[in-house]
Amino acid sequence: MNATPIPQLTGLRTVGAVWVVMLHTLSLTIALWPEWSKVSRLALGGNLGVDLFFLLSGFIITHNYLADLGTGSVRRALHFWGLRLARLYPVFLLAMVAWAVFLIMQSPRESGLFDGALSPRNVVMNLLLLNHVPPASSIASTSWSVCLEFGAYLAFPFLAVLLVRIRSALLAAALAAAVLAGGVLLLIRLDVQSFEFFTYRVGWVRLAFEFLAGCLLYVAWSLSGRWREGRSWDIAFVAAAIGIVYACWHEDPNHPGFFPLAAVPLLAVVVVACAGSTGVVRSLFSTGPMMWMGRISYSLYMTHFFTLALITNGLHEWWVRWPPPAVVRDVTPILIFAVIIAVAAGVYHLVEEPARRRLRHTVDRLGPRVRSDG
Asked: What is the per-residue burial (b if ≥16 Cβ within 10 Å, else e) of 212-246?
């Protein structure tokens, strides 16, 4: 029997993915729509889209797998790892190959390319999902977080043995608050708003405390009885969302690492409040379009920057030779976003889902099943 779905959390994934796309398309959008610069700080907050994914991942993975993995079964842990690899690896590999071909075509005579990004050691580390472990670098630009995510999955069966022993919602909530506070303080100490934002250790710190906080928040929420659901969560969601916008709006855009630290605990509130909502928030994030976008969000996250690179290269070549009329420039950002979504949808339906189903079938034959593949 599968864990009861929480469909609105699938819809919430849309926010994280679209926010990251807004960040990466910001420069091009401002070049074509100068007025867009007025909301540039909100778009720059797209760095937080990854943090939302980490929190969501901890929450949803705990919801789906805690009952099975809390037993400490080694065979169930192996099965879980197989399922997560089936979920992540096909699109990861596709993105890696696509970027490798793109880099070679862009710099066919660049010998340094094969001493750096496409060196044998770096290629092997990427293939092993070690692309955000020193000294590796990610061949597919956005895939750094996949390495972190899989690291969390490797740790989860061990973590589940401890989580399943927590019987108090108050204790779990207190632990989650302590983890969030400790993580934010550590990021401050690491000077996350400087160039340190782009280092290995900041990425691993973000993953560690946010994934763990997501796990603990699920335990607290699941044990909260009559407080688990209600319209008060809708109010909490709206308040937290307003707080996140405020934090982004007042962040200094000159920081090399644009990372509104005050927004991180509010993202945790957003996740729990979305799960517990029974009013307009639940209705909004459970709609067909939001659910569909949530399902393709991983493919969208993994392919959008590659698609954007191809589009910008093509536009540069075409527009230098044939300058477009103003009306074409005005609609170009919308068309770019539509193409990005279309490519992601194609990858999801033609690669991600078919490959996941085939690999899951193989994994299921090798050992006892856990309840859900997430």
From this structure: bbbbbbbbbbbbbeeeeeeeebbebbeebbebbbe
Write the DSSP string, 167-205.
--HHHHHHHHHHHHHHHHHHHHHTTTTSGGGGSHHHHHH
pLDDT at residue 110, rounded to an integer: 61
Into how many domains does the chain fold? Answer: 1
In a domain, 229, yes or no: yes
Q: Decide if 371 is inside a domain.
A: no
- Report d(CA 302, CA 140) in Å as an integer: 8
pTM of whole model > 0.90?
Answer: yes
Digit-coded pLDDT (tens) for 182-235: 999 999 999 998 999 999 999 999 999 999 999 999 999 999 999 999 999 999
Residue 259 corresponds to which tokens in the numbers above?
């990372």
DSSP 217-279: HHHHHHT-GGGSSSHHHHHHHHHHHHHHHHHHHTS-TTSSS---TTHHHHHHHHHHHHHH--S
Q: Answer yes or no: is 2 within a domain.
A: no
Residue 373 forms part of a structural domain: no
H-run or E-run covering 287: none
Find tokens 């969208």 and name the residue: 300
Q: What is the DSSP string of 104-138?
A: HHH-TT-GGGGTTTTSHHHHHHHHTT-TTSTT---
* Structural domain span for residue 99: 7-366
210, 211, 217, 222 alpha-carbon torsion, rounded to 10°: 170
User: Residue 1: pLDDT above 50?
Assistant: no
CA geometry: angle 367, 368, 369, nearest 5 deg: 115
On the question of pLDDT at 22 being above 80, the answer is yes
The DSSP annotation for 300-349 comes to HHHHHHHHHHHHHHHHHHHHHHSPPPHHHHHHHHHHHHHHHHHHHHHHII
Using the predicted structure, report yes or no on whether residue 112 has a pLDDT greater than 80.
Answer: no
